[in-house]
Design goal:
The protein has helices at about 10-30, 30-70, 75-90, 95-115, 120, 125-150, 155-165, 170-200, 210-220, 225-255. The chain is an all-alpha fold. The longest helix is centred in the N-terminal third of the chain and has 40 residues, at about 30-70. The two termini are about 25 Å apart.
Length: about 260
């Protein structure tokens, strides 16, 4: 008898192993330049992972607030979050990152001059903070729609039953609706994490020393674009494949048996 599907090794682990072996072979048999690339960009890998994880955690919070706002009966709250979602989703992420890094500080400095506040007049943007802020604002809009769809997928009778038991709307949402909705939206949330990991490469344009920027620096010093970007691509591939495996494992553990 063959192993049950749940007991089989995820095929993506084999892909991860193949890519890692390929990286090792390149580094061992062609240390110059492939091992040099790995050594040079190693600190950028940590920055990329840090930016991705922090941005994703904040995006989950912003997305939940936005999703609840999109379902609010108050027209002002609904209108505000609807406007946020539609505007942010209509502007490319790269443009948003550039705006936060270059335009936002100018606005802060202008406010400082208007209010005669020296600490605002001399405000300088922190590249890492602005990059995370830009990613969170952008992905928060998409996550808001994921939360909204997940909440709306839960039968209305669930809320009505909770209210009939004496729960307030926030209590029913917290204890009854959201736990079920989160299980429903885990697959798209996992996909958003993987997309965020890849899109984090765009923060290199706002002076964040991530994996992509370190690759550009190495290429500018050595004039070897092919080995540089082959290795960068393989490193990103390992990270995205491992993220995909972890997301799949979480989905399996939280799946509701029907």
């Amino acid at each position: 008898m063959g192993a049950e599907p749940s007991e089989r090794i995820d095929a993506r682990w084999w892909m991860v192993a193949v890519v890692i072996i390929l990286i090792i072979l390149l580094a061992v048999f062609s240390p110059d330049p492939y091992y040099r690339v790995i050594k040079f960009v190693s600190d950028g890998i940590g920055v990329t992972l840090g930016v991705t994880v922090v941005s994703f955690l904040l995006t989950l919070i912003v997305g939940m607030i936005g999703g609840l706002g999109r379902l609010a009966k108050n027209p002002l709250i609904y209108g505000f979050f609807t406007l946020y979602v539609e505007i942010i989703r209509g502007i490319p992420l790269l443009v948003q990152l550039i705006w936060w890094y270059f335009a936002f500080p100018v606005i802060i400095q202008g406010i400082g001059r208007s209010l005669n506040l020296d600490f605002l007049v001399t405000y300088q943007a922190n590249p890492l903070a602005m990059a995370i802020l830009g990613l969170v604002f952008c992905y928060g809009a998409y996550m808001s729609e994921i939360y909204r769809a997940g909440i709306q997928s839960i039968a209305r009778g669930q809320m009505e039953a909770a209210r009939s038991l004496g729960m307030t709307y926030p209590q029913a949402m917290r204890h009854i609706i959201l736990p079920q909705a989160i299980r429903v939206i885990l697959p798209p949330i996992g996909n958003e994490f993987i997309a965020l990991l890849k899109d984090s490469s765009l923060v290199s344009v706002v002076a964040v020393v991530d994996l992509t920027r370190r690759g550009r620096e190495f290429m500018s010093q050595t004039f070897m674009p092919i080995p540089t970007w082959i290795m960068i691509a393989l490193i990103y591939l390992v990270m995205t494949l491992m993220s995909s495996v972890i997301v799949g494992w979480v989905e399996k553990k939280t799946r509701i048996e029907r």
